[in-house]
Amino acid sequence: MDAIGVVFQFGPFAVTSTVVTTWGVMLTLGVFSWFATRRLAVDPGPLQAALEGAVSAIEEAIRGFLPQHVELVLPFVATLWIYVLVANLTGLIPGLHSPTGDLSVTAGLAILVFFSVHWFGLRGEGFVNYLRHYLSPTPIMAPFHIISEISRTVALAVRLFGNIMSLEMAALLVLVVAGPLVPVPLLMLHIVEALVQAYIFGMLALVYISGGIQSQQIVRGKKGAGRE
Amino acid sequence: MNDMTWFTTLSTLGAVLGIAIGVTCPALAMGKAISQALDALARQPEAEKSIMRALFIGLAMIESLAIYVLVIVLIILFRNPLLAYLVK
Fold it and tell me: Do the Cβ atoms of A204 and B78 come within 8 Å?
């Protein structure tokens, strides 16, 4: 668990390698997307077909949870998915560490998810209706709702961080114990784990957001049924 | 044995026991979840999508328990805050 290297000093702020790698990932993704979408055709080439496949797969996954709000949450969840995936895989490039192996990055992503749950929930239903679901089924449950919001945010951050950090560390330990080229099978496991963790992070974010949007709808549905 | 030897021995022992127990229990839970999911899949192959989704989310929840253990063990091994009382 060596400390994260400081690349350069910017006034009182030390810019770590995590931040620089994240900038690199952002730049790569942005430039790649810009060039990939310059010449869109009705009859797509291989690159465009692959990108369309990825986007429609994400759209399909969101439609499974939130059939009415696909356009609303697609940009956020797809960004999370793609960023976490690329950031996880960055660790395979020699000399680079995964930005997601740093607790600050995963905590930042988890806090984004935490706020977006409330943001999408408020936008869907309005202030009073959204806050009311904290008092359901009884006001006694309100503290437990709040504890679960905080603990699941912490769990989201620690899960991604722990997985990626432990994989890198395991590969490093095997390298120290057994010598070069032995950790290659572990790095193959890293590819699988990077995919699975990115999928799970985005999926859990989607589940939490859809919970925030749908919770009041369930409450309202019950009330509507009671009135009839 | 002096204090430092005791400290290293016991914290290593605690870390190894902690990770052993803390990985075994989530492994049992995961095995149970997967076997139940396969059972459900064999009964209702058409519900594969929702079963797999629930299974993945459940496995992620269980796995995070093992990750908590790993993080605590790494803190004990590398950044033990109680070491400050011993080394003045």
Answer: no
By CB atoms closer than 10 A (0-12, 13-18, 19+), residue A21 is buried
CA count, 13 A, side-chain hemisphere, A23: 6
Three-class DSSP category at A9: strand
Residues A87, A98 contacting (CB under 8 angstroms): yes
Distances from the Cα of B77 to the Cα of A52, A91, A112, A168, B13, angstroms: 47, 24, 31, 17, 10
Q: Do B67 and A163 touch (CB under 8 A)?
A: yes
Angle, helix B48-78 to helix A46-65, in steps of 10 degrees? 90
Contact A130, A145 (CB under 8 A): no
Measured in degrees and rounded to the nearest 5, phi and psi for residue A6 equal: -90, 125
Band (A227; pLDDT cuts 50, 70, 90): very low
Q: Cβ contacts (< 8 Å) between A199 and chain B: which residues?
A: 56
* Assigned CATH class of B34-79: mainly alpha
Confidence band for B78, pLDDT divided at 50, 70 and 90: confident
Look at residues A26, A59, A98, A67 and name the one whose alpha carbon lies nearest to residue A202.
Answer: A59
3-state helix, strand, coil in chain B (%, to 5): 90, 0, 10
What is the domain partition of chain A in residue ranges? 44-227
| Residue A87: how many other CB atoms lie within 10 Å | 27
Do A4 and A19 touch, CB atoms closer than 8 A? no
Q: Enter the tokens of residue A156.
A: 């989201």
Given a contact cutoff of 8 angstroms between Cβ atoms, the answer to whether A135 and A142 are in contact is: yes
Look at residue A216 in the predicted model and tell me its pLDDT: 56
Distance of CA A104 to the CA centre of its chain: 14
A203/B57 Cβ within 8 A = yes
Tens-place pLDDT, residues A164-184: 988 888 888 888 888 888 888
Picking from B57, B61, B68, the nearest residue to A158 by CB comes out as B68
